[in-house]
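Task: sequence in, structure out. Protein: G-protein coupled receptors family 1 profile domain-containing protein.
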Amino acid sequence: MSTFGNLTTTTTIAPYIPTSRPVQFSILLTIAIFSLPCSIFVLHHFLSTKTLYRAANNHVIILLLISNCLQTLTDVPGQLSYYILGVNRPLTLSYCYYFYFIDFYLFTTCFLLLTWSSFERHILIFHIYVFNTHRKRVAYHYIPLMICVTYPMIYYVYFIFFYPCENYYDEYTSYCVPACYLRTNAMMALYEQIAHGFALMLLIFIFNVLLFIRVVQQKARMGRQMTWKKNRKMAVQLFSMCFLFLLTNGGYFVVQIGQMLYDPTFGVEFSLWAIPVAMCMPPLFPFVCLSTLDELHGKLKRATPCWNRWAVVPITGTELQHLPTTTSRRRDYLKNG
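Result:
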């Protein structure tokens, strides 16, 4: 999803750095700094609470947290280097291989997990009986999650490292040339653009719209029953994650569709910001998870002194009788005066 940084080995010409790059660098660095402790905190909460890590709806969230945390630790630093220096370091072909794999694999894994989560929420909310046996849970829950993680790994290991073509970077133009299987095979480039991009985004949008409609209809039938509250929480978790995905990556996909169907130069100016915004999704993801966990809100309130300082304590009837009124205070003042 992110751009390939320009590489140079022999030229001494300083790389051109647009005026927007320092702003993009500052924003992404600030988010990434706060993202890592937030990721550790939320992951620890999920993995240390038995009821949370055993709940089927939280498994995909844990995998997404791990994937986005890895992106923040590996992919984001390379992008920060490119923003501030105009080059990616180290300037070697090995780094290009590393960059191809990390960038493609982690982004595709996140998109697949979000797509499956958008579909699985329909089962968890409206057809929970599908998971009433261990065999069904393995077949319809764990295996799809394994496919979301292993399929892109096998796919990119083969096409980046073993596909019969040669990857290289152009030392004269100082750019890391896109992976060779995308340059030499038009069908593979089209497949990846559709299967790993447009199709997943469309499915995420459709599944979430349908889920919203079904949840609203369920609310009208069930009112404020306990089942409704649980279902609402699962739906809000999904909507929050997918909203972040659509918000950060929507502009990039709009540019890609416009360039493919309308004009190859469509949105070139806009893409200077669309791709940096897409890179903000990994470090922002743990904050979205934190905002949807009601259990953590209580822990944070108890751990933060300012919450306890301003806590409102109810007054009993006996205590109310002993509170000084304005009249009694005035009478005591005149008496003592």
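The radius of gyration is 26 Å.
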